Amino acid sequence: MSLISLVDRNNSDKACRSAQRCSVGESLYHAGQEGLAWRVAQGVVRLDMISPGGELSFASLAISGDIIGCETMLFGAYTFSASALTQCELTPWPEGNKDPASESLLQSLASAQKRAAEVVALRGGEAVSRVMGLVRLLASETDQVVLPTRQDIAEITDLRFETISRVIKRLERAQILLPRKLTGIHATRSFDVDFSLAYP
Amino acid sequence: MSLISLVDRNNSDKACRSAQRCSVGESLYHAGQEGLAWRVAQGVVRLDMISPGGELSFASLAISGDIIGCETMLFGAYTFSASALTQCELTPWPEGNKDPASESLLQSLASAQKRAAEVVALRGGEAVSRVMGLVRLLASETDQVVLPTRQDIAEITDLRFETISRVIKRLERAQILLPRKLTGIHATRSFDVDFSLAYP
DNA sequence: CGAGCACTTGATCTATGTCAACGGTAGTGG
DNA sequence: CCACTACCGTTGACATAGATCAAGTGCTCG
Lengths: 200, 200
Description:
The structure is a homodimer. By secondary structure, chain A is of the alpha+beta class. Helix content of chain A is 32%, strand content 26%. Chain A is built from six helices and eleven strands. In chain A, the strands form three sheets. A four-stranded antiparallel beta sheet of chain A has the order 1-8-3-6, with no helix packed on it. A four-stranded antiparallel beta sheet of chain A has the order 2-7-4-5. In chain A, a hairpin with a 5-residue loop joins strand 4 and strand 5. In chain A, helix 5 crosses helix 6 (161-173). The longest helix of chain A is centred in the middle third of the chain and has 20 residues, at 102-121. Chain A is globular. The model of chain A is unreliable at 1-12 (pLDDT under 50). The A-B interface holds A 47, 49, 51, 57-60, 67, 70-71, 73-74, 79-80, 99-102, 105-110, 112-117, 119-121, 123-125, 158 and B 47, 49, 51, 57-60, 67-68, 70-71, 73-74, 79-80, 99-102, 105-110, 112-117, 119-121, 123-125, 158. The first copy, chain A, binds a DNA duplex through helix 6.
């Protein structure tokens, strides 16, 4: 968990009116700021909230199709901070010039509740199954993943990064995760590794 | 976690068109059934989903103001099973005869996301703080709680009931939870105890 | 009375946390 | 170019919170 003051120095936030592509690890917006609501068109977004101690702590995930930041339309400020866990694409919401249709809002509400249940499941049970749960979520439809940092995975699953490191190594040795050093387009950070899932 | 076949034998579900009061522990509806969507007007509801293994596993909480079961309006069946963690009151949703206004849906979406973050927080950190977190959630606005069974608390916080028992006893001895045997109206089960929070 | 359920408590085990050392890869500045 | 710092990741040794197993209490219900 980084201190807010540190996070605030990161000025790479996205805030314009058109569709946005963002790369792994990138910060999208911060709690307390003004801004738009977005639909996650591609990828997985990590949401954090400001804990009583003033640090950012993991709050939830949003994946393809989910709406994030809609609090701004009610309160004029984001409740959560958002960052990209995988490559992702955001489009401003509500879409086009039409009013948010209650049909689509109802769908969003239902899928938000489903998502919540999935995230809750990532924080229960044994370490291996939590990590695999997250990997499956990240890999959904792709079966190729660039994993977030061990620290990110640790905060999402409520484990320690050393544990995550050991778990992932174990999965590699068991040939369940098959690493491939990234050479091409996707590699944004030196330590990025592309994994395929042997048994998705 | 009980098997579905066992749970299905419980026929005490609520399903009529008017406001419903339900007492602690009562089952409200089951995943897969048809039924209405509800607004939780009072109390706290536990939602479970059917895990891969076929058992019911804790999915989320809904508290005063939240909308539950709205999936039925889209899919014709509940995704989750619901049961009352505290005394609670449900009103059919959408309210009255009006269409679900997109304003109120937007609010519901935002508060669902907030709720998700709260539930996630109940599954991280030390045992004591998880339990206290839940107790505070249950006691919000009342500072008097009838706790759910240790087993319920255990499933919500991803701990074991023996651990919950030890934690609660510890909090009692530290005078943070002040037990009072229930005599009156609220006691629905022999083992119910009313707690006040010393430092809410 | 016996069976069932919720709870308590002790003894012991273990998965995960904690601490610490080390390697690889930028990036920065002299 | 090299030294230096800052991350990210791996691995070992050891500590511990919580899990597991087991026994026992009190209450209710038939």
